[in-house]
Write a structure and sequence with these properties.
The chain has seven helices and five strands. By secondary structure, the chain is α/β, with parallel strands linked by helices. The protein has two domains: 94 residues, no CATH class; 111 residues, no CATH class. A five-stranded mixed sheet has the order 2-1-5-3-4, covered by helices on one side. β1, α6 and β2 form a beta-alpha-beta unit. 15% of the residues are buried.
Length: 219
């Protein structure tokens, strides 16, 4: 659609009015070129303008086509929808990125020890389990070190598995999470006061005399 317009511009310049040619000859009286040469110059200028106009229009058209292509690929109809889809994609990528290993800092160990100390003598035994990876085992060992320094009888850490597929983080295993014992509640509260975001889960062990355990699940 752009080519006929460009050709029209060139033809118009080639048929430049007589007063324009006369003005050029009067402005440059020493130019010995013939009128046909001046016409050629004016025509060349017209062609340059036409080509420039054509290329500019072509570039805009190409950019518009690219935008439409992106819209089709993203299946969106507006910039807001595109941004939302991009955010969703970034969140999905972030979710599969490897997370840094968890560990208790020295400050966290001190804080946890201070919050557990008041109930340490009441805990007669504490089993510690981790879900199975090296990261979880090392994190569980951090807790075991704090508990042993408090003279709490501990067993483990030992590999285990969560009772629920949704078990994540640090959990206190209970026979019935709906009915924790008073000591279990104090233990959970002490973990939270020590800066640990502890939750609860069902404990499926076969040792009938255990009130609760400590379970380190995946992140």
């Amino acid at each position: 659609m752009r080519r006929p317009a460009a050709r029209g511009i060139v033809v118009g310049m080639a048929d430049a009015p007589k007063d324009l040619l006369d003005a050029i000859e009067n402005r440059f009286p020493r130019v010995t070129a013939s009128r046909s040469f001046i016409v050629a110059i004016v025509t060349a200028l017209g062609i340059g303008f036409a080509v420039s106009h054509f290329l500019s229009s072509t570039e805009v058209s190409a950019l518009k086509q690219q935008v439409e292509l992106y819209k089709a690929k993203l299946q969106v109809g507006s910039p807001d929808e595109a941004l939302k889809k991009l955010k969703d994609l970034e969140d999905r990528v972030q979710a599969i990125q490897p997370k840094p290993d968890r560990q208790l800092s020295q400050e966290q160990k001190k804080s946890l020890a201070a919050s557990l100390a008041p109930i340490a003598k009441d805990i007669t035994q504490l089993w510690i389990f981790y879900e199975g990876t090296g990261e979880e085992a090392r994190f569980a060992n951090d807790f075991a070190a704090v508990l042993r320094d408090l003279k709490i009888p501990t067993f483990g850490p030992m590999p285990g598995y969560g009772s629920l597929s949704t078990d994540r983080g640090v959990l206190v295993g209970l026979r019935d999470p709906r009915k924790p014992s008073a000591l279990a509640l104090r233990f959970i509260d002490a973990l939270r006061q020590g800066g640990i975001d502890a939750s609860t889960t069902y404990w499926a062990g076969d040792q009938g005399d255990i009130d609760f355990d400590l379970f380190v699940a995946g992140q």
